[in-house]
Amino acid sequence: DVQLVESGGGLVQPGGSLRLSCTASGFTFDDYAWSWVRQAPGKGLEWVSTIYSVGSTTHSYSESVKGRFTISIDNAKNTLYLQMNSLKPEDTAVYYCALDRPPYSVYALEYDYWGPGTQVTVSS
Questions:
Q1: pLDDT digits (tens, 9 = 90+) for 62-84
Q2: What's the CA gap between 50 and 17, in Å, rounded?
């Protein structure tokens, strides 16, 4: 079975930075789409970012994090990263790592595998 484990969450002040990691195990192919999805207190799931390779590597971000967050992947380590800069209180959420195998899903809720999440709190 595919297993994902997030790490790197914690408490950070507004304007600060944090780097999340997601280590995956239990799969053999490199054509998965890797995503970050978050859930703020009292809110539903919000897609944050996805990285995938279809001929060339593609990065995509939600409008709320574009320019502040950077998604990357280390294939050799089966590890996904999310570098978060200029953090805002509204970034406070549980951040989930998710994998999607081909054919890729349009909606985050349809992603195939999910980690347990890591808490990010942005507060002074």
A1: 999 999 999 999 988 889 999 99
A2: 19
